[in-house]
From TrEMBL:
PANTHER family recorded: PEPTIDASE S12 (PTHR43343), PROTEASE DO-LIKE 8, CHLOROPLASTIC (PTHR43343:SF3)
SMART domains associated with the record: PDZ
Species whose genome carries this gene: Deinococcus rhizophilus
UniProt name for this protein: Trypsin-like peptidase domain-containing protein
Entry keyword set: Hydrolase, Protease
Superkingdom, taxonomy of origin: Bacteria
PDZ domain mapped to chain residues: 297-399
Keyword 4Fe-4S (UniProt): no
Length: 414
């Protein structure tokens, strides 16, 4: 039963939707050797610094595990009756990937192989390994749009050409340590750049939220100053031991389409946790765990409905309705889900000019110690969770906050 609320209670403020992201030290001495004792010119190998030798060794050993990805997507453009209706155009794209095991599984970004508008996958995907002139078709084993990850497998590729790159541990990263990026910037295949890890916990929107707003889910990313440009997406970020610590995914451009020295990579541990599910996806989609709640505050924005948090309402409206300053209003709780088993409650839907809000139920204000004000915030707290994990929530109910524990069972991953 929907009842109407006075418009004065729920004036929306500043609603903004969408997310934009499109030494070694050499000892120096002032002393000069006597003319008779001048050292002979060093050989090239002897003159190489320790860091150079390390980088060269990484490239020699692991660059053969890099994969160059090409995609083709057929797009029909409506030219109107005057020009004969629709016209099909083929959009081409390039990106990077790398082998993760001896079976030939290739990890890359979802957006490298995504279809139009980030939905589905490209019509044709081919991969080419280092030293080979011919590209071979690749099939999609599984996709995880919310994580911006996808798993491919090359068809008919000789076993000796499959060179997996070992996976490292992104939880042990330290700011300042070496980072080597591999990929195909601007289509320049099998390129290598070097820098450092600039930050280990940069929070940025990654992937596709699935809520219809186009926003990515805010996730922890590795920031690096190793040059990353369009085409590097999906390529590996390696440490000084040659192990993968991240999957290159985005750059901050400062208004241009070129690298500004700020690149981001998905931590490899997030990908490692997803690999079993991607391998079992059968070409389908892997989604983040779900508690089993729907958003209870829906507004009309930019011609479509969007789920938003309480912070977009006026302070007066929140006070009149007895709601906190921010939080995710719980609309409905699906039966036989972690949310239902944890005792979360949905509210009764009431209309207001420009939207609908569910009142009388719970408002989730915090998840795993992090503030929640949107469905994406709740999803972000679940991204790295596995079956059996417990999620700690703080819930506003009847004017008071309380702690709720929800356990992620098999239903959260269906």
């Amino acid at each position: 039963m929907k009842t109407r609320l006075p418009a004065v209670f729920l004036v929306l403020l500043g609603l903004g939707l969408g997310a934009t992201l499109l030494r070694d030290q050499v000892p120096v001495s002032g002393a000069q050797p006597p003319a008779s004792q001048e050292a002979a010119p060093a050989t090239e190998a002897g003159a190489r610094l320790q860091n150079e030798r390390n980088t060269i060794d990484i490239v020699r050993r692991y660059e053969p595990g890099l994969v160059f990805i090409s995609t083709e997507l057929e797009v029909v453009q409506d030219l109107g009756w005057l020009f004969g209706g629709g016209q099909t155009q083929v959009q081409q794209g390039v990106g990077s990937g790398f082998f993760v095991n001896g079976a030939g599984d290739i990890l890359t970004n979802y957006h490298v192989i995504a279809g139009e508008g980030g939905r589905g996958t490209a019509d044709r995907i081919t991969v080419r390994v280092m030293g080979q002139e011919e590209a071979v078709p690749a099939e999609v084993i599984g996709t995880a749009p919310q994580y911006d990850l996808a798993l491919l497998r090359a068809e008919g590729l000789a076993r000796n050409l499959i060179r997996p790159i070992p996976l490292g541990d992104s939880d042990t990263l330290a700011v300042g340590q070496k980072a080597v990026a591999m990929g195909a910037p601007f289509g320049l295949e099998f390129s290598v750049t070097e820098g450092i890890v600039s930050s280990t916990e940069r929070q940025i929107p990654i992937g596709f939220s699935g809520t219809g707003t186009g926003e990515g889910i805010t996730q922890k990313a590795i920031q690096t100053d190793a040059a990353i440009n369009p085409g590097n997406s999906g390529g590996p970020l390696l440490d000084s031991s040659g192990r993968v610590i991240g999957i290159n995914t985005q750059i901050a451009t400062g208004g241009s389409q070129q690298s500004a020295g700020v690149g981001f990579a998905i931590p490899v541990n997030a990908a490692r946790n997803l690999l079993p599910r991607l391998q079992e996806a059968g070409g389908g989609e892997v989604r983040a765990p779900r508690l089993g709640v729907t958003a209870g505050l829906i507004v009309q924005a930019r011609g479509q409905q969007a789920a938003v948090g309480l912070s977009v309402l006026t302070a007066e409206g929140r006070r009149e309705l007895g709601l906190p300053e921010r939080g995710l209003v719980v609309g409905q709780v699906a039966p036989n889900t972690p949310a239902a088993r944890a005792g979360l409650r949905g509210g009764e839907a009431r209309e207001f000019p420009g939207g609908v809000i569910a009142l009388g139920g719970d408002v989730i204000v915090e998840a795993e110690g992090e503030p929640v004000d949107a469905l994406e915030d709740l999803q972000a707290a679940l991204l790295d969770k596995s079956e059996g994990d417990r999620v700690t929530l703080r819930v506003w109910r009847g004017g008071e906050e309380r702690e709720v524990q929800a356990t992620l069972d098999a239903s959260a991953f269906e």
